[in-house]
Design goal:
Blueprint lengths: L14 H18 L3 H21 L8 H13 L4 H20 L26 H8 L7 H16 L3 H5 L6 E2 L4 E5 L5 E5 L1 H14 L1 H5 L18 H15 L9 H12 L4 H8 L4 H22 L4
Helix pairs in contact: 1-2, 5-10, 6-8, 6-11, 11-13, 12-13
Length: about 300
């Protein structure tokens, strides 16, 4: 059973499949206000599936349950992760529900297909000392170093997603009230307090580094790249890994590492779970509850280490 490389560039799609995918992405963008990253993920999943279907002589709107199950078996044989398969199934469910609702198809091929159960993975945790070491790593004599220090301070102080950080604009920051206005997933707006420390770094960065990075070019982006443009998530992620190496942090990191640390450290210091949920912009409390497991684990470790009968 061949998967036709499972590569977005492997096979050309039929014009009908290309049009069907494009129309669906336009529809969910209008309905849900999904981010570009989410839309790109949907496009990739549907394109890979459509490319595999080319080898079966079938188009997206001709799929039945048997064919879909065969595709899932192919993914399993190729040892693709259950997490990526669950993401594909979620995407496909939405796609075929939409086609059914629009009257394009008469039967949903996913009606009998169940998603795989996923293990509840805990985010990798940075200790408060790790965070201090990371924040202290950038070279403050360099405008880029001062920019990176400020970005790390804001990221940790506010628990932002990386995309929310790199797309911040000047009107979103209020230094009089020390709050940041963020447009999160699904175009949901939230106000986040940032604390005096992050506000102090922003003021210094605005005064000493941002004008140099922009080279007097008009731009409302808060943290421009060295080319005075909006920084990509990938570029900032490389900057985090660089400063982690400088700080001697050997723990595996992810783009959400400081966001995880923000939530966990708040809970460790007694913050209410629902407050953390609001600050993170989670629509479902169960998404936030994963951090309580981390906080509880950390408390047990502290008890075992320091209590005389631990």
């Amino acid at each position: 059973m061949d998967v036709t490389h499972l590569s977005p560039e492997a096979v050309s799609l039929s014009p009908q499949d290309e049009t069907t995918i494009a129309h669906y992405l336009d529809a969910i963008w209008m309905e849900k206000g999904l981010s570009k990253n989410s839309l790109d993920s949907y496009r990739t999943d549907l394109t890979l599936f459509a490319q595999w279907l080319v080898g079966q002589g079938v188009q997206l709107l001709q799929v039945d349950s048997a064919l879909l199950l065969r595709y899932l078996a192919v993914r399993h044989e190729r040892q693709l992760s259950s997490r990526s398969t669950a993401r594909f199934l979620s995407c496909a469910r939405g796609f075929y529900r939409h086609q059914l609702r629009e009257g394009v198809i008469q039967e949903n091929p996913l009606a009998i297909v169940k998603s795989p159960k996923l293990p509840r993975s805990l985010p990798k945790l940075l200790t408060e000392k790790d965070v201090d070491d990371l924040l202290s790593a950038p070279d403050l004599t360099d405008p880029i170093g001062l920019r990176d220090r400020t970005m790390l301070e804001v990221l940790y102080a506010c628990g932002l997603r990386v995309t929310e950080l790199v797309t911040l604009t000047m009107p979103q920051i209020n230094l009089r009230q020390n709050v940041i206005r963020v447009m999160g997933k699904g175009s949901k707006e939230r106000l986040i307090p940032m604390g005096e420390e992050a506000a102090m770094w922003l003021e210094r960065y605005f005064r000493e580094a941002r004008p140099q990075l922009l080279n007097d070019m008009p731009n409302e982006i808060v943290f421009p790249s060295s080319r005075a443009q909006e920084m990509t998530r990938q570029t900032f992620w490389h900057r985090i890994k660089h400063w982690a190496t400088v700080a001697g942090i050997e723990k595996p990191l992810s783009p959400h590492t400081l966001r995880h640390a923000f939530a966990t450290h708040l809970l460790n210091h007694g913050a209410d779970l629902r407050v953390v949920q609001l600050l993170l912009g989670h629509s479902d409390l169960s998404t936030t509850q994963i951090y309580t497991h981390i906080a509880r684990t950390r408390m047990k470790e502290l008890h075992a280490t320091h209590h005389p009968r631990g």
